[in-house]
Amino acid sequence: xxxxxxxxxxxxxxxxxxxxxxxxxxxxxxxxxxxxxxxxxxxxxxxxxxxxxxxxxxxxxxxxxxxxxxxxxxxxxxxxxxxxxxxxxxxxxxxxxxxxxxxxxxxxxxxxxxxxxxxxxxxxxxxxxxxxxxxxxxxxxxxxxxxxxxxxxxxxxxxxxxxxxxxxxxxxxxxxxxxxx
Length: 181
Ligand SMILES: [Zn+2]
What we know:
- With about 180 residues, the chain is of the alpha+beta class.
- The protein folds into 2 domains: about 5-120, Arc Repressor Mutant, subunit A (Orthogonal Bundle); about 125-175.
- It has 8 helices and 4 strands; from the N terminus they run αααβββαβαααα.
- The protein has helices spanning about 5, 10-20, 35-45, 75-90, 105-120, 125-140, 150-160, 165-175, and strands spanning about 45-50, 60, 65-70, 95.
- The chain has a 4-stranded mixed sheet, covered by helices on one side.
- Helix 4 (about 75-90) crosses helix 5 (about 105-120) and helix 7 (about 150-160) packs across helix 8 (about 165-175).
- The chain is globular and about 50 Å long.
- The model has no long low-confidence stretch (mean pLDDT about 90).
């Protein structure tokens, strides 16, 4: 599916303001419906450098995103999304480390915004909903009778397919109120 159809207008506007039509013609991998976050970074003119970083998940320096290669792929992907978020927020010098350590209130706000960008980039609403629908079908579940245990299975399988962490997917589903009646 084309990114231009997956992302909402606000996000596309933000991306296009930075690089005109950066995502035009770009598709998610047709077999694996996950977002190619590294390709998006590249289209924005950002270079990703994976290295061993002491105590930091990632860092944006100018047009370079540094990523801690010792963390899980899902976490690295989220960090790339987070640093793209800083870039789209017009910051070119930001690092990501564990929450709550040494952030001022205004930095904390920027961190929250960068995380929101990461979630939107990696888990656009259509992709989340389609993935959940596929898995419900795949597991032969009834959408109206999802038990707590089924839900855990759906989260785990979805996170795996989209290559995001389970906590990140769970938070996104809650945020989007996918299952609320
Ligand atoms: Zn950050």
